[in-house]
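Meet the record:
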Amino acid sequence: RLALAPLRFQQTAFGITLDNAPWRMQRILYPALAWGASFGRAAWLPAAMFLVNLLGLAAVAMFAVLLTARLRLPALTPLAIMVWPGFIIALTRDTTEIVAAAFLLGALDSYFAKRLLAFGVLGALATLTRETSILVLGGILCFELLRAIRDATAASCWRRVAICGLALVPFLVWREMLRLFWGDSFQDAALAANMGWPFAGAATMLRDSLTGIRRYAPAPGFDAEIRTYTIASTCWLLSFCAVVAARLPAALRMAGAGALAAGWLPVIGLMSTLTANGPWIESTAYFRAFTECYLVGSLIPAARPTPGWRSWVLVAGGVAVWLVAWFLANS
Protein backbone atom coordinates (compact mmCIF):
# COMPACT_ATOMS: atom_id res chain seq x y z
CA ARG A 1 0.00 0.00 0.00
CA LEU A 2 2.74 2.51 0.90
CA ALA A 3 4.80 1.60 -2.16
CA LEU A 4 1.83 2.46 -4.38
CA ALA A 5 1.86 6.05 -3.06
CA PRO A 6 4.45 6.66 -0.31
CA LEU A 7 3.25 10.15 0.65
CA ARG A 8 -0.51 9.63 0.42
CA PHE A 9 -1.68 10.31 3.98
CA GLN A 10 -4.78 8.14 3.90
CA GLN A 11 -5.59 5.11 6.01
CA THR A 12 -7.50 3.52 3.11
CA ALA A 13 -6.36 3.78 -0.50
CA PHE A 14 -6.17 1.45 -3.50
CA GLY A 15 -8.62 -0.84 -1.71
CA ILE A 16 -6.16 -1.40 1.18
CA THR A 17 -6.70 -0.25 4.76
CA LEU A 18 -3.64 0.13 6.98
CA ASP A 19 -4.25 -1.08 10.52
CA ASN A 20 -2.04 1.67 11.98
CA ALA A 21 -1.14 4.02 9.16
CA PRO A 22 1.20 6.44 11.01
CA TRP A 23 3.09 3.58 12.64
CA ARG A 24 3.58 1.88 9.27
CA MET A 25 4.59 5.17 7.65
CA GLN A 26 7.56 5.51 10.00
CA ARG A 27 9.28 2.94 7.75
CA ILE A 28 8.82 5.03 4.63
CA LEU A 29 12.11 4.64 2.77
CA TYR A 30 11.79 1.03 1.55
CA PRO A 31 8.33 1.57 -0.01
CA ALA A 32 9.58 4.87 -1.46
CA LEU A 33 12.54 3.10 -3.08
CA ALA A 34 10.23 0.41 -4.46
CA TRP A 35 7.88 3.10 -5.81
CA GLY A 36 10.83 4.76 -7.55
CA ALA A 37 12.14 1.44 -8.92
CA SER A 38 8.69 0.69 -10.36
CA PHE A 39 8.40 4.21 -11.85
CA GLY A 40 5.07 4.47 -10.07
CA ARG A 41 3.55 1.61 -12.08
CA ALA A 42 1.45 -0.70 -9.92
CA ALA A 43 2.00 -3.67 -12.23
CA TRP A 44 5.78 -3.44 -11.79
CA LEU A 45 5.66 -2.99 -8.03
CA PRO A 46 5.91 -6.64 -6.84
CA ALA A 47 9.05 -7.18 -8.92
CA ALA A 48 10.45 -3.80 -7.84
CA MET A 49 10.04 -4.59 -4.13
CA PHE A 50 11.81 -7.91 -4.60
CA LEU A 51 14.57 -6.28 -6.65
CA VAL A 52 15.20 -3.57 -4.06
CA ASN A 53 15.60 -6.22 -1.37
CA LEU A 54 17.93 -8.28 -3.57
CA LEU A 55 20.11 -5.21 -4.11
CA GLY A 56 19.94 -4.65 -0.37
CA LEU A 57 21.29 -8.15 0.24
CA ALA A 58 24.16 -7.45 -2.13
CA ALA A 59 24.91 -4.24 -0.20
CA VAL A 60 24.77 -6.11 3.12
CA ALA A 61 27.31 -8.63 1.81
CA MET A 62 29.58 -5.87 0.51
CA PHE A 63 29.57 -3.90 3.75
CA ALA A 64 30.05 -7.10 5.79
CA VAL A 65 33.21 -7.82 3.80
CA LEU A 66 34.42 -4.21 4.14
CA LEU A 67 33.82 -4.20 7.91
CA THR A 68 35.57 -7.55 8.27
CA ALA A 69 38.65 -6.18 6.53
CA ARG A 70 38.54 -2.78 8.23
CA LEU A 71 38.17 -4.17 11.76
CA ARG A 72 40.35 -7.23 11.08
CA LEU A 73 37.57 -9.61 12.04
CA PRO A 74 37.60 -13.40 11.50
CA ALA A 75 36.98 -14.56 7.94
CA LEU A 76 33.68 -16.21 8.99
CA THR A 77 32.11 -12.86 9.94
CA PRO A 78 30.47 -12.09 6.55
CA LEU A 79 29.07 -15.64 6.41
CA ALA A 80 27.68 -15.27 9.93
CA ILE A 81 25.94 -12.06 8.88
CA MET A 82 24.50 -13.40 5.62
CA VAL A 83 22.95 -16.52 7.20
CA TRP A 84 20.70 -14.38 9.39
CA PRO A 85 17.21 -15.96 8.93
CA GLY A 86 15.52 -12.58 9.18
CA PHE A 87 16.73 -11.81 5.66
CA ILE A 88 14.76 -14.76 4.27
CA ILE A 89 11.62 -13.61 6.05
CA ALA A 90 12.07 -10.03 4.81
CA LEU A 91 12.80 -11.15 1.23
CA THR A 92 9.71 -13.35 0.97
CA ARG A 93 7.41 -10.86 2.71
CA ASP A 94 8.67 -7.60 1.17
CA THR A 95 9.52 -5.98 4.50
CA THR A 96 12.09 -3.39 5.50
CA GLU A 97 14.80 -5.30 7.39
CA ILE A 98 17.18 -5.93 4.47
CA VAL A 99 17.34 -2.35 3.23
CA ALA A 100 17.65 -1.02 6.79
CA ALA A 101 20.48 -3.49 7.45
CA ALA A 102 22.31 -2.34 4.31
CA PHE A 103 22.14 1.31 5.35
CA LEU A 104 23.08 0.49 8.95
CA LEU A 105 26.13 -1.59 8.01
CA GLY A 106 27.11 1.09 5.50
CA ALA A 107 26.89 3.68 8.28
CA LEU A 108 29.06 1.54 10.58
CA ASP A 109 31.64 1.08 7.83
CA SER A 110 31.76 4.84 7.28
CA TYR A 111 32.05 5.41 11.04
CA PHE A 112 35.12 3.21 11.35
CA ALA A 113 36.56 4.68 8.14
CA LYS A 114 36.16 8.12 9.79
CA ARG A 115 33.87 9.33 7.02
CA LEU A 116 31.51 11.01 9.44
CA LEU A 117 29.29 12.80 6.92
CA ALA A 118 28.66 9.52 5.10
CA PHE A 119 27.95 7.93 8.48
CA GLY A 120 25.36 10.61 9.23
CA VAL A 121 23.63 10.26 5.87
CA LEU A 122 23.55 6.45 5.83
CA GLY A 123 22.52 6.34 9.47
CA ALA A 124 19.64 8.72 8.80
CA LEU A 125 18.51 6.58 5.86
CA ALA A 126 18.60 3.50 8.11
CA THR A 127 16.30 5.14 10.66
CA LEU A 128 13.84 6.19 7.95
CA THR A 129 13.77 2.59 6.72
CA ARG A 130 13.30 0.97 10.12
CA GLU A 131 12.87 3.02 13.27
CA THR A 132 14.70 0.57 15.55
CA SER A 133 17.96 1.50 13.80
CA ILE A 134 17.87 4.70 15.82
CA LEU A 135 18.77 2.68 18.92
CA VAL A 136 22.13 1.71 17.43
CA LEU A 137 22.86 5.29 16.39
CA GLY A 138 21.72 6.56 19.77
CA GLY A 139 24.11 4.19 21.54
CA ILE A 140 26.99 5.35 19.37
CA LEU A 141 26.03 8.98 20.07
CA CYS A 142 26.21 8.29 23.83
CA PHE A 143 29.60 6.61 23.34
CA GLU A 144 30.93 9.64 21.46
CA LEU A 145 29.45 12.04 24.01
CA LEU A 146 31.13 10.29 26.93
CA ARG A 147 34.42 10.23 25.04
CA ALA A 148 34.12 13.97 24.34
CA ILE A 149 33.39 14.70 28.00
CA ARG A 150 36.49 12.76 29.06
CA ASP A 151 38.58 14.73 26.56
CA ALA A 152 36.84 18.07 26.63
CA THR A 153 39.75 19.90 25.01
CA ALA A 154 39.53 17.99 21.72
CA ALA A 155 37.35 19.92 19.28
CA SER A 156 37.26 16.93 16.92
CA CYS A 157 35.45 14.88 19.58
CA TRP A 158 32.61 17.40 19.77
CA ARG A 159 32.45 17.50 15.98
CA ARG A 160 31.89 13.75 16.01
CA VAL A 161 29.17 14.16 18.64
CA ALA A 162 27.43 16.80 16.53
CA ILE A 163 27.44 14.66 13.39
CA CYS A 164 26.27 11.56 15.28
CA GLY A 165 23.45 13.65 16.71
CA LEU A 166 22.47 15.05 13.32
CA ALA A 167 22.05 11.49 12.01
CA LEU A 168 19.00 11.16 14.27
CA VAL A 169 17.33 14.39 13.17
CA PRO A 170 15.63 13.31 9.89
CA PHE A 171 13.75 10.48 11.60
CA LEU A 172 12.71 12.69 14.52
CA VAL A 173 11.46 15.34 12.09
CA TRP A 174 9.55 12.74 10.05
CA ARG A 175 8.01 11.25 13.18
CA GLU A 176 6.93 14.69 14.36
CA MET A 177 5.30 15.33 10.97
CA LEU A 178 3.38 12.06 11.34
CA ARG A 179 2.33 13.02 14.85
CA LEU A 180 1.10 16.43 13.71
CA PHE A 181 -0.94 14.89 10.88
CA TRP A 182 -2.32 11.80 12.61
CA GLY A 183 -2.36 12.90 16.25
CA ASP A 184 -0.90 11.15 19.30
CA SER A 185 -3.05 8.01 19.27
CA PHE A 186 -0.64 5.91 17.23
CA GLN A 187 2.40 6.37 19.43
CA ASP A 188 1.53 3.92 22.20
CA ALA A 189 -0.74 1.40 20.48
CA ALA A 190 1.94 -0.65 18.74
CA LEU A 191 4.37 -0.38 21.65
CA ALA A 192 1.77 -1.68 24.08
CA ALA A 193 1.22 -4.79 21.96
CA ASN A 194 4.91 -5.54 21.48
CA MET A 195 6.57 -4.61 24.78
CA GLY A 196 6.28 -5.99 28.30
CA TRP A 197 8.42 -7.18 31.20
CA PRO A 198 12.04 -8.10 30.32
CA PHE A 199 12.44 -11.69 29.09
CA ALA A 200 8.80 -12.57 29.90
CA GLY A 201 7.84 -12.83 26.23
CA ALA A 202 10.55 -15.32 25.28
CA ALA A 203 9.93 -17.35 28.44
CA THR A 204 6.18 -17.50 27.79
CA MET A 205 6.71 -18.49 24.16
CA LEU A 206 9.13 -21.28 25.13
CA ARG A 207 6.78 -22.55 27.84
CA ASP A 208 3.78 -22.59 25.51
CA SER A 209 5.80 -24.30 22.79
CA LEU A 210 7.10 -26.99 25.15
CA THR A 211 3.66 -27.72 26.60
CA GLY A 212 1.88 -27.63 23.25
CA ILE A 213 -0.39 -24.71 24.19
CA ARG A 214 0.83 -22.80 21.17
CA ARG A 215 0.56 -24.32 17.71
CA TYR A 216 2.51 -23.20 14.66
CA ALA A 217 1.92 -25.82 11.95
CA PRO A 218 1.34 -24.38 8.46
CA ALA A 219 -0.20 -27.72 7.49
CA PRO A 220 -1.65 -30.67 9.45
CA GLY A 221 0.96 -33.07 10.79
CA PHE A 222 3.86 -30.62 11.17
CA ASP A 223 3.06 -29.04 14.52
CA ALA A 224 5.59 -31.05 16.57
CA GLU A 225 8.34 -30.37 14.05
CA ILE A 226 7.64 -26.65 13.93
CA ARG A 227 7.48 -26.41 17.72
CA THR A 228 10.82 -28.24 17.96
CA TYR A 229 12.35 -25.87 15.44
CA THR A 230 10.92 -22.82 17.22
CA ILE A 231 12.37 -23.92 20.54
CA ALA A 232 15.77 -24.77 19.02
CA SER A 233 16.04 -21.54 17.01
CA THR A 234 15.00 -19.46 20.00
CA CYS A 235 17.62 -21.14 22.19
CA TRP A 236 20.23 -20.53 19.47
CA LEU A 237 19.29 -16.85 19.25
CA LEU A 238 19.25 -16.37 23.03
CA SER A 239 22.61 -18.18 23.31
CA PHE A 240 24.05 -15.84 20.70
CA CYS A 241 22.84 -12.84 22.69
CA ALA A 242 24.34 -14.32 25.87
CA VAL A 243 27.73 -14.73 24.16
CA VAL A 244 27.65 -11.11 23.01
CA ALA A 245 26.54 -9.87 26.44
CA ALA A 246 29.40 -11.74 28.11
CA ARG A 247 31.86 -9.84 25.91
CA LEU A 248 30.36 -6.41 26.41
CA PRO A 249 32.48 -5.30 29.43
CA ALA A 250 35.71 -5.97 27.56
CA ALA A 251 34.33 -4.60 24.27
CA LEU A 252 33.29 -1.30 25.84
CA ARG A 253 36.93 -0.66 26.78
CA MET A 254 38.19 -1.25 23.24
CA ALA A 255 38.67 1.63 20.80
CA GLY A 256 36.76 0.05 17.93
CA ALA A 257 34.41 -2.41 19.57
CA GLY A 258 33.38 0.14 22.20
CA ALA A 259 31.08 1.97 19.78
CA LEU A 260 29.58 -1.32 18.61
CA ALA A 261 28.94 -2.40 22.19
CA ALA A 262 27.36 0.96 23.02
CA GLY A 263 25.12 0.63 19.95
CA TRP A 264 24.12 -2.92 20.86
CA LEU A 265 23.11 -2.18 24.47
CA PRO A 266 19.87 -0.24 23.78
CA VAL A 267 18.89 -2.74 21.08
CA ILE A 268 19.19 -5.77 23.36
CA GLY A 269 17.34 -3.77 26.00
CA LEU A 270 14.40 -3.40 23.63
CA MET A 271 14.60 -7.01 22.44
CA SER A 272 14.36 -8.26 26.02
CA THR A 273 10.92 -6.64 26.34
CA LEU A 274 9.29 -8.27 23.28
CA THR A 275 6.04 -9.96 24.23
CA ALA A 276 4.63 -13.40 23.50
CA ASN A 277 1.72 -11.70 21.69
CA GLY A 278 4.10 -9.51 19.70
CA PRO A 279 7.15 -10.71 17.74
CA TRP A 280 7.36 -13.97 19.72
CA ILE A 281 3.88 -15.04 18.62
CA GLU A 282 5.00 -16.67 15.37
CA SER A 283 7.69 -19.24 14.57
CA THR A 284 9.74 -16.75 12.51
CA ALA A 285 8.58 -13.20 13.37
CA TYR A 286 11.24 -12.72 16.05
CA PHE A 287 13.95 -13.05 13.40
CA ARG A 288 12.81 -9.80 11.82
CA ALA A 289 12.63 -8.07 15.19
CA PHE A 290 16.16 -9.11 16.16
CA THR A 291 17.82 -7.97 12.90
CA GLU A 292 19.82 -5.00 14.26
CA CYS A 293 20.56 -6.93 17.45
CA TYR A 294 22.08 -9.80 15.47
CA LEU A 295 23.98 -7.72 12.92
CA VAL A 296 25.70 -5.45 15.40
CA GLY A 297 26.09 -8.28 17.90
CA SER A 298 27.84 -10.50 15.36
CA LEU A 299 30.61 -7.90 15.06
CA ILE A 300 31.26 -7.69 18.81
CA PRO A 301 32.50 -11.25 19.59
CA ALA A 302 34.49 -11.10 16.36
CA ALA A 303 36.36 -8.02 17.58
CA ARG A 304 38.26 -10.18 20.07
CA PRO A 305 39.89 -13.59 19.57
CA THR A 306 37.13 -16.20 19.74
CA PRO A 307 37.61 -19.96 20.15
CA GLY A 308 37.25 -21.55 16.74
CA TRP A 309 34.72 -24.12 17.92
CA ARG A 310 32.41 -21.39 19.23
CA SER A 311 32.45 -19.55 15.91
CA TRP A 312 31.68 -22.73 14.01
CA VAL A 313 28.86 -23.68 16.39
CA LEU A 314 27.20 -20.27 16.00
CA VAL A 315 27.56 -20.26 12.21
CA ALA A 316 26.41 -23.88 11.88
CA GLY A 317 23.40 -23.11 14.05
CA GLY A 318 22.65 -20.09 11.90
CA VAL A 319 22.80 -22.15 8.70
CA ALA A 320 20.41 -24.75 10.14
CA VAL A 321 17.98 -22.09 11.32
CA TRP A 322 18.24 -20.36 7.92
CA LEU A 323 17.34 -23.53 6.01
CA VAL A 324 14.21 -24.19 8.03
CA ALA A 325 13.26 -20.50 7.93
CA TRP A 326 13.35 -20.75 4.15
CA PHE A 327 10.99 -23.73 4.30
CA LEU A 328 8.61 -21.91 6.64
CA ALA A 329 8.69 -18.73 4.58
CA ASN A 330 7.57 -20.70 1.54
CA SER A 331 5.01 -22.90 3.33
About this structure: The chain has a mean pLDDT of 86.
